[in-house]
Amino acid sequence: MPSPKEQIRLRRKASIRKRVHGTTERPRLSVFRSAKHIYAQVIDDSTSATLVASSSLAKDVAAESEKTKRELAELVGTAIAKACLAKGITKVVFDRNGYIYHGRVKALADGARAGGLDF
């Protein structure tokens, strides 16, 4: 059974997912945060397909392993933006996945915006 803190996050996540839906024109940028790493993927919910994914474990980002977790999150955002632009995706819907928009989640979003994504 998840901890009380995790239960609250899952309740927030369910509430957010009722409203946030990715389409082919504007897919969903979903974020998952663990204690050590951060993961992001761009999902087209109409076809249930992951279009682009990146994480702090990816080779191009992991090469910067001496950076802080927040700096790595910003690099993941920039990497996912670069991959999206290569596939012709410029607009996304940001899904914070129940996490508070602060710290690493905000850094990833700022990195994605700096990389050229619009949300």
UniProtKB/TrEMBL annotation:
It comes from Nannocystis exedens. Pfam families: Ribosomal_L18p. It comes from the Bacteria. PANTHER family: 39S RIBOSOMAL PROTEIN L18, MITOCHONDRIAL, LARGE RIBOSOMAL SUBUNIT PROTEIN UL18M. SUPFAM superfamilies: Translational machinery components (SSF53137). The gene is rplR. GO terms for biological process: translation. Keywords: Ribonucleoprotein, Ribosomal protein, RNA-binding, rRNA-binding. This is Large ribosomal subunit protein uL18. GO terms for cellular component: cytoplasm; ribonucleoprotein complex; ribosome. Belongs to the universal ribosomal protein uL18 family. This is one of the proteins that bind and probably mediate the attachment of the 5S RNA into the large ribosomal subunit, where it forms part of the central protuberance. Part of the 50S ribosomal subunit; part of the 5S rRNA/L5/L18/L25 subcomplex. Contacts the 5S and 23S rRNAs. InterPro entries: Ribosomal_L18 (IPR057268), Ribosomal_uL18_bac-type (IPR004389), Ribosomal_uL18_bac/plant/anim (IPR005484). NCBIfam families: L18_bact. GO terms for molecular function: 5S rRNA binding; structural constituent of ribosome. The keyword DNA damage does not apply.
